[in-house]
Design a protein that fits this description.
Elements lengths: L4 H11 L1 H4 L7 H9 L2 H15 L4 E11 L28 H13 L4 E6 L9 H13 L3 E5 L5 H10 L3 E3 L18 H13 L3 E3 L2 E3 L5 H12 L7 E6 L16 H14 L4 E4 L8 H9 L4 E4 L11 H11 L2 E2 L9 H10 L8
Parallel strand pairs: 1-2, 1-9, 1-10, 2-3, 3-4, 4-5, 6-7, 7-8, 8-9
The structure holds S-adenosylmethionine, 6-(5-methyl-2-OXO-imidazolidin-4-yl)-hexanoic acid and iron/sulfur cluster.
């Protein structure tokens, strides 16, 4: 098996829904075998799959804004915004629409193509919906894609957001089903899956991933990817966060994640969900340039830009621009967001870097 790229190429072709018309249902065993393989084999396979679907030198840029910060009734043990932990964060009310739009305009002028708005809620209340709808309509009118993360949604709420024109909804499964109760007790793993299904049924694109560094083991990481890849359709975006330890939360002293293990996670996500945007999400301030470069090589093709995530730091824009220049990476432009069949065919036909696929 070692060093037999032909065999690997065939295995990949077989698992590619675009090539043979079948959708691979992942078993935990097959996914674990991918994750466990020698790093060079895993990276080669991930980069090869990446090149079948995306331009490897383009990265999608999203900008985050916390539209309602803190005071959240949920007990997510990593989160600065839970009212169950004392992280020193003061709670605020839902932001006014005009303020959100002013921030969004600034982000657009700085090059962001997707605007993600997050609220520290268990789920949105009926009274909040008109303001949320106005935010979606306003951001879309600025020419950006919209994303929201507001907690759990039912079918009616999802339909309202779809009607307003929402492009993406972020709702993470966070970890494996087995490890989940060690991290969150106020909402179940099954409820998370129900929200993802309501969002999908409403025709909104799903953004769902998780966090590394919650005290989980490698099998939990693999199982999380299996759940995501086997959803009725894999999420369009898969954020992989590295825990930002927050003082005052139960995970403030959690052991840091090994950088190579994190890179393995990105590579395995790329192979299992070849058409998804895999986002190198929270935790980049603690990552070296070299680690981020390995994540991009492993198939990450999306990041959050701007110096704040929701409540915690993200790299300064200048340092990201320097990193992009060093790596020869370019921001993805809006029309490149969806994997493009014509481009993919051209890559398969012409790119000397992927000869095994011809
Ligand atoms: N309240 C909404 C919800 O949880 O559905 C949306 C906001 S929530 C902050 C979005 C996601 O951010 C979480 O699901 C988690 O994966 C990630 N996140 C939150 N705090 C984090 C931290 N300290 N480090 C890394 N990721 C974090
Ligand atoms: C996601 O997976 N990561 C983003 C976004 N979805 C909403 C949030 C990261 C939050 C990091 C901690 C903070 O800023 O409070
Ligand atoms: Fe609330 Fe979301 Fe934080 Fe959980 S992750 S405590 S639901 S804001």
């Amino acid at each position: 098996m070692l060093g037999n790229p032909q065999a690997k190429g065939e295995a990949m072709l077989h698992s590619d829904p675009n090539i043979d018309g079948h959708r691979q249902i992942w078993t935990a065993k097959a996914a674990r075998a991918l994750f466990d393989q020698p790093l060079m084999d895993l990276l080669f396979q991930a980069q090869t799959v990446h090149r079948q679907h995306f331009d490897p030198n383009r990265v999608q840029l999203s900008r985050l804004l916390s539209i309602k910060t803190g005071g959240c009734p949920e007990d997510c043990s990593y989160c600065s915004q839970s009212s169950r932990h004392d992280s020193g964060l003061s709670a605020s009310k839902l932001m006014e629409v005009q303020r959100v739009l002013a921030e969004a305009r600034r982000a657009r002028d700085a090059g962001a193509t997707r605007y993600c708005m997050g609220a520290a809620w268990r789920s949105p209340k009926a009274r909040d919906m008109p303001q949320i709808v106005a935010m979606i309509e306003g951001v879309k009118a600025l020419g950006m894609e919209t994303c929201m993360t507001l907690g759990m949604l039912d079918a009616d709420q999802s339909a309202q957001l779809a009607e307003a024109g929402l492009d993406y909804y972020n709702h993470n499964i966070d970890t494996s089903e087995a490890h989940y109760p060690n991290v969150i007790t106020t909402r179940t793993f099954a409820e998370r899956i129900d929200t993802l299904e309501a969002v999908r049924q409403a025709g909104i694109k799903v953004c769902s991933g998780g966090i590394l560094g919650l005290g989980e083991g490698r099998q939990d990481r693999v199982d999380m990817l299996v759940t995501l890849a086997n959803l009725p359709s894999p999420p369009d975006s898969v954020p992989i966060n590295m825990l930002i330890p927050v003082e005052g939360t139960p995970l403030e002293n959690a052991a840091p994640v090994d950088p190579i293990e994190f890179v393995r996670m990105i590579a395995t996500a790329r192979i299992m969900m070849p058409q998804s945007h895999v986002r190198l999400s929270a935790g980049r301030t603690a990552m070296s340039d070299e680690m981020q470069a390995m994540c991009f090589f492993a198939g990450a093709n999306s990041i959050f830009v701007g110096d704040t995530l929701l409540t915690k730091d993200n790299p300064e824009e200048e340092s990201d621009m320097r990193l992009f220049a060093k790596l020869g990476l370019q921001p993805m432009v809006a029309h490149e967001h969806a994997p493009d069949e014509a481009r993919r065919a051209a890559l398969l036909a012409d790119d000397p870097a992927i000869p095994i696929l011809r």
